[in-house]
Amino acid sequence: MQFNLGDRVRTRLKNPEGHTRLPAYLRGRIGRIERVVGAFPFSDERAAGHTAAKPQTLYTVCFAGRDVWGDDAQAATISADLFESYLEPLT
């Protein structure tokens, strides 16, 4: 699924074996697409030895600090570059 600037998304709540670039503290969190970075080989597959990993779109997703760390982090903003397969649309 392709996302657009400003779309609200939720990161998938999964704990895969091996390498992933989805930080544990961002799993299951709601954010907003800030930037469409482009298509890159999926790093999780490359880390598993698949040198011909298919490209995936990479997005910069911004999260409100309170949505990640609770009310004590109200002024914080967290940005992360996340692959498309880590995200689902927020309905």
What this model shows, in words?
The chain is mainly beta and 91 residues long. It has a single domain, classed as SH3 type barrels (Roll). It is 11% helix and 40% strand. It has 2 helices and 5 strands; from the N terminus they run E-E-H-E-H-E-E. The chain has helices spanning 43-47, 65-69, and strands spanning 8-11, 30-41, 55-64, 77-83, 87-89. The chain has a 5-stranded antiparallel sheet. The model has no long low-confidence stretch (mean pLDDT 90).
Q: At the first level of CATH, what is the class?
A: Mainly Beta
From the 3D structure, determine the CATH topology: SH3 type barrels
Question: What is the radius of gyration?
Answer: 13 Å
- Main pleated sheet: 5 strands, antiparallel
- The number of E-state strands comes to 5
Overall pLDDT metric: 90
Percent of residues in helices comes to 10-25%
Low-confidence stretches: none
How many individual helices? 2
Number of domains: 1
The appropriate CATH architecture is Roll
> What spatial order of strands do you see in the largest sheet?
4-3-2-1-5
Short structural summary:
11% of the residues lie in helices and 40% in strands.
Would you spell out the secondary-structure blueprint of this structure?
Blueprint: E1 8-11, E2 30-41, H1 43-47, E3 55-64, H2 65-69, E4 77-83, E5 87-89
Antiparallel strand pairs: 1-2, 1-5, 2-3, 3-4
Keywords:
91 residues; SH3 type barrels; five-stranded antiparallel sheet; 2 helices; globular
